[in-house]
């Protein structure tokens, strides 16, 4: 995060990790593969918590509230904002970096939410015609403006009451459109 993707050398990464350059190269032949491994580990942890919130038996309103709250917390974390900044600034020169970031992070979360919405529709608890679009819309309702402001340096965090008010409004809006 400190040097950007291109500026971070394998030598410096190895030094800070307390490993040899040869050890890193034997496990990860490129920085892109090292980045993918780090992203996979981080997203596995995050998605495990998202999965438990979206259990089939959970009430959709509660599940969406829990998912949205965790999503807000995640995207407004200092480390997440720094990672997004690096990826966005390097995306044109390293399109594989952007694809890896999206596929392993936001893309996986949207697939998980989309699958949940599809299951809830099949169970008759929601009426969602296009689960992928609905998942994207819900995520944007929950974090869109908060993330935009944070990415522009206009305040990483809105006060907790403001964040929760946005979340409550997002769930209410989503349930009005898709609830039974």
Summarize the structure.
By secondary structure, this protein is an all-alpha fold. Helices cover 77% and strands 0% of the residues.
Describe the structure.
This protein has 180 residues and is an all-alpha fold. The chain has one domain: Orthogonal Bundle (Tetracycline Repressor, domain 2). 77% of the residues lie in helices and 0% in strands. It has 10 helices and no strands. The longest helix is centred in the N-terminal third of the chain and has 23 residues. The termini are far apart. The mean pLDDT is 86.
Layout of helices and strands, plus pairs?
Blueprint: H1 4-7, H2 10-17, H3 21-27, H4 31-53, H5 60-75, H6 78-90, H7 95-104, H8 106-122, H9 131-151, H10 160-178
Helix pairs in contact: 2-3, 4-5, 4-7, 5-9, 5-10, 7-8, 8-9, 9-10
**CATH level 1 name:** Mainly Alpha
Morphology: elongated
Total individual domains? 1
Return the CATH topology: Tetracycline Repressor, domain 2
Q: Strand content of the residues, in percent?
A: under 5%
CATH-assigned homologous superfamily: Tetracycline Repressor, domain 2
User: Mean pLDDT score, rounded?
Assistant: 86
| Secondary-structure element pattern, one letter each | HHHHHHHHHH
Could you tell me how far the N terminus lies from the C terminus, measured between alpha carbons in angstroms? 45 Å
Largest sheet, in brief, is:
none
Total beta strands: 0
Helix content: over 70%
Broad structural category: mainly alpha
Q: Give the quaternary arrangement of the chains.
A: single chain
Gyration radius (Cα, Å) is 18 Å
Low-confidence stretches: none
Number of helices: 10
CATH architecture annotation = Orthogonal Bundle
């Amino acid at each position: 995060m400190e040097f950007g993707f291109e500026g971070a050398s394998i030598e410096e990464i190895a030094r800070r990790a307390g490993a040899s350059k040869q050890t890193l190269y034997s496990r990860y032949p490129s920085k892109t593969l090292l980045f993918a491994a780090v992203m996979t580990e981080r997203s596995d942890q995050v998605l495990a918590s998202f999965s438990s919130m979206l259990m089939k038996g959970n009430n959709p309103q509660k599940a969406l509230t829990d998912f949205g709250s965790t999503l807000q917390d995640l995207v407004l974390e200092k480390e997440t904002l720094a990672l997004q900044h690096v990826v966005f600034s390097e995306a044109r020169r390293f399109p594989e970096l952007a694809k890896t970031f999206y596929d392993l992070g936001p893309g996986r979360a949207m697939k998980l939410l989309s699958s949940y919405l599809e299951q809830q529709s099949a169970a008759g608890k929601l009426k969602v015609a296009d689960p992928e679009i609905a998942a994207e819309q819900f995520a944007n309702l929950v974090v869109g403006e908060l993330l935009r402001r944070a990415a522009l340096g206009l305040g990483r965090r809105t006060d907790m009451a403001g964040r929760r008010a946005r979340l409550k409004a997002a769930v209410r809006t989503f349930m009005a459109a898709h609830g039974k």
